[in-house]
Design goal:
Blueprint lengths: L1 E6 L7 H17 L4 E3 L17 H15 L5 E10 L2 E10 L2 E7 L23 E4 L2 E7 L6 H9 L4 E6 L7 H16 L3 E5 L1 E4 L2 E4 L3 E3 L5 E4 L6 E6 L16 H20 L4 E4 L4 H14 L4 E5 L7 H14 L2 E4 L3 H15 L6 H22 L2 E4 L3 H6 L12 E2 L6 H14 L5 H5 L19 H13 L4 H6 L4 H13 L1 H5 L26
Parallel strand pairs: 1-2, 2-3, 7-8, 8-9, 15-16, 15-18, 16-17, 18-19
Antiparallel strand pairs: 1-14, 3-4, 4-5, 6-7, 9-12, 10-11, 12-13
Length: 530
């Protein structure tokens, strides 16, 4: 028996288009002698359709897609899709063969943590599904089902010889290794080989990294698809176990994060229909990394960088920006903002009379830049990419309607220390980020001789505190016991709390950790818990 794992990139809501992609993959699989084609979770609709799942006519389109797939002869299809039965909705997989529906499996375990919200939409399934193919009993599971003991055990008890798992498992750092480890437990518990198929592509803040694979009865990795790329991975079952198949080389950790960011930008802009991207280039490291990612995602011809210097912008910032745009070959403009700033200050002078200068004047410069970028976006249709990182989002060192103005926050889940690591990694592939941008002390350049560390702990300290508090839910007291200075911990935690209102208004951005400031971060803006 030959199984084809259809690792591909659907578009949420494009049921007709996704149906055609599945049909094309099925024809490829037939040509290569496959008996079964297994798609990822909710492949017919894309993951996740969210509140589209609450609309009745959505299910009529799903039914039409299944009807079309049902007409295909010569292969068994295991199709992931939402199903509605009466007043209940299910995360389902339907088995189709030669014009017949052999059965429908309903996902038993519905995740309702991190970025998952499946209990809002679905009813959990209650029974295993095992179907026969070439004398082999094939058990079907969906994503979360393979992260716990019971569903796989029920499939084994129902007579399965092999398990296929349909997945929409989003990326975060080291996720592929975690999947391998978790499924080895299922193999050990059941004694059954498991084939795991995953989505690719970006969907809003989620990135699906592919990496489909298979484990034999000994828990050994016998097949591995590429990360991030679409692929039809073929597995042979010899009547006893999976035999050795393709073993793609997986990217290292930094490359994997970088590629996830590239995919996130590519698909958010491409699937949404924007003609390209534009961003403010400052001569600093965050905008340099954002520009590199945008060029790798879209091509230089679809990216527009704008330098908007003020009297506080260092000459080397302008020089380094010009250097980088020459290296990557994007459209580039310079717009001096100081005359506009002086006009604003003149208009505000009566209202500001007698009041000392403070961050208001700094924020005004950022808001002028945001206004210019949004004007260019309106005129060209290109999407503004914001350049702020996770460390800034944590502490509120970002300006509403200024550097936060835009449509996609590329580095929203990337800590400042990781920004430096990614820049150095990208330069090993091609030297496009000037070295001085990487080595200069970070500065917003909104007042004379400004440095980020004037008012923040060193980024190595800040990011370590942030990771513990945000990503691992440690308390301030626990972090202090880890050896961090009480003043630094209390400052970071206080800044995090008082800036929740900013994060709630920030653009969506790709998630690359297991706890980003998106769907998996839901704190009340107004609260007095300390």
């Amino acid at each position: 028996m030959r199984i084809a794992l259809a690792q591909f990139n659907p578009v949420v809501g494009d049921i007709a288009g996704n149906t055609q992609k599945i049909l094309a993959l099925a024809h490829q699989a037939i040509a290569q002698g496959a008996d079964i084609l297994v798609t990822p979770e909710l492949a017919l609709t894309g993951y996740s359709p969210e509140d589209l799942l609450l609309r009745d006519h959505f299910y009529r389109a799903i039914a039409a897609g299944l009807d079309e797939l049902e007409q295909l002869d010569g292969i068994t299809l295991v199709i992931g899709h939402p199903a509605k039965l009466g007043n209940e909705r299910f995360n389902a997989a339907t088995v189709l063969r030669d014009g017949h529906r052999l059965g429908q499996y309903h996902k038993m375990l519905l995740p309702n943590n991190e970025v998952f919200d499946e209990c809002r939409y679905f009813t959990p399934g209650a029974a295993p599904l095992v179907f026969e193919q070439n004398g082999v009993q094939v058990g079907v599971l969906i994503c979360e089902d393979v992260w716990s003991i019971e569903p796989a055990a029920e499939a084994a008890d129902a007579g399965a010889d092999v398990i296929v798992s349909l997945n929409a498992s989003p990326f975060h750092r080291n996720k592929i290794e975690t999947r391998h480890e978790m499924l080895r437990y299922r193999v050990q518990e059941t004694g059954l080989p498991i084939a795991y198929v995953n989505l690719t592509g970006g969907q809003d803040e989620l990135v699906f990294d592919g990496g489909s694979f298979a484990l034999n009865k000994q828990g050994e990795l016998v097949a591995q698809a590429a990360a991030y790329d679409d692929e039809l991975l073929l597995l042979d079952y010899d009547g006893h176990d999976f035999t050795a198949a393709r073993q793609a080389t997986l990217p290292g950790e930094l490359e994997s994060v970088y590629r996830a960011l590239v995919v996130g930008v590519r698909d958010y802009i491409g699937k949404s229909g924007f003609p390209g991207a534009l961003l403010g280039l400052s001569g600093g490291i965050d905008s340099a990394l954002t520009l590199a990612i945008a060029v790798d995602a879209l091509g230089a011809d679809r990216v527009h960088a704008v330098m908007m210097p003020s009297r506080y912008t260092a000459d080397i910032s302008v020089d380094d920006s010009r250097d980088m745009v020459q290296r990557v070959g994007v459209k580039y403009d310079e717009i001096e903002i100081w005359p506009m700033y002086e006009s604003f200050m003149a208009a505000l002078a009566p209202s500001f009379d007698g009041l000392a200068m403070d961050t208001t004047e700094e924020n005004l410069q950022a808001r002028i830049r945001g206004t210019l970028l949004m004007a260019l976006s309106n005129k060209t249709g290109k999407l503004v990419l914001t350049t702020g990182n996770k460390s800034e989002m944590t502490t509120g060192y970002c300006t509403l309607y200024g550097d936060m103005a835009g449509g996609f926050a590329v580095l929203k889940d990337v800590a400042k220390t990781l920004v430096f690591e990614l820049c150095r990694w990208r330069n090993t592939v091609g030297d496009i980020i000037p070295e001085r941008i990487i080595t200069r002390p970070p500065s917003a350049e909104l007042r004379p001789d400004q440095k980020d560390q004037d008012s923040l702990p060193p980024y190595e300290v800040l990011d370590a505190i942030m990771a513990r508090y945000v990503e691992h839910n440690m308390s301030a007291a626990e972090i202090i016991r880890d050896g961090f200075a009480e003043a630094d911990v209390n400052k970071v935690v206080r800044l995090l709390k008082i800036n929740e209102y900013k994060r709630r208004q920030a653009p969506v951005g790709p998630r690359i950790t297991h706890r980003g400031f998106g769907k998996d971060w839901r704190y009340p803006i107004t609260n007095r818990f300390s």
